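Many introductory courses stop at the sequence. We go one step further.
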Amino acid sequence: MKVLVINAGSSSLKYQLLDTASQEVLAKGLCERIGIDGKFTYKAPGKETIDAKDVAMPTHSEAIQAVLDALVDPANGVVGSMKEIEAVGHRVVHGGETFARSVRIDGKVMAALEECIPLAPLHNPANITGIKACTAVMGPDVPQVAVFDTAFHQTMPPVAYTYALPYEYYEQDKVRRYGFHGTSHKYVTQRAADMLGKPIEALKLISCHLGNGSSIAAVAGGKSVDTSMGFTPLAGLPMGTRSGDLDAGILEYLMNKHGMDIKEMLGVLNKKSGVQGVSGVSSDFRDLCAAAEDGNGRAALALDLFSYGVKKYIGAYAAAMGGVDAIIFTAGVGENDAQQRMAIASGLEFMGVKMDADANNIRGKEAIISAIDSKVKVLLIPTNEELMIALDTAELA
């Protein structure tokens, strides 16, 4: 089945057309600056790359139409007609407690997505816009599927998702741990089971999705039992520009001292904190490594702060599951930064982790990077959220 995967932002739209039978990416690209002065990119194997500026994309509907026009273009396209695109899969950030799995989109689902907007006000409206744009351009008969970042974590038990707040805030306002990056954690844990040659139901895995946004997930028997992000993606590890966990009393202290309102404070926590805030250099780990090598102490501290945070979560989740069979590294930093992987795994020998420096000296390829005699295996697995979305979509459509 040929599935178009859409990841819609407020002014952008990423897309991939995949063949789920061969798991081949037929074409991919990005629509940027929607509503301003649109930029359109398109890449397909063996075809001419398109990188066009000032493309008329006043709304997401025109962006979707530009994507479809490129895909069916007689000279540069990869399908003969729109009829060959059999379904559309949408990344949706938040499904609340309503959605524990991917779903085929209908009127009831759209209404439920609208109800989830308060839980993800920056993301869900854009995801909904992408769905409506596809319906407007492709018609109501093309099956569309919503795949949620939060769905994989709906298997967490109450002890893992409940906050120690007055319980009515959960009952009335749905304040709880939701977790994110679920599509990525689901994909890499399934691949880990394949690589280890064991049924996922028999494995205890810790998945480390490490990038500009980072989260850790404890996965037992193929089900998420805990994860580091919380009610929002701001919780957990220090990230590129996000603070991660901190003492909530700090907010009141800084707001009073510097005359900030809550919107300004959240701007600091989301966009000016994390490794960028600590280092004063960058949110990009490559820049931090270069600065640390040049003797920048704050850059070195930021890197150490990150690896220390990941290490603590690994230890905590091994304890929560009563052991661990494998640790997985994925996403931009996890897949490409051998130095960070080694810093995180070093010191975990007490729980059966033994790294192989030569095996770890690799980027972006599936590999076992622990020593042969390591009791706990350490895996590098490039994530593929688009493929996971396409496979879920094909199954439901």
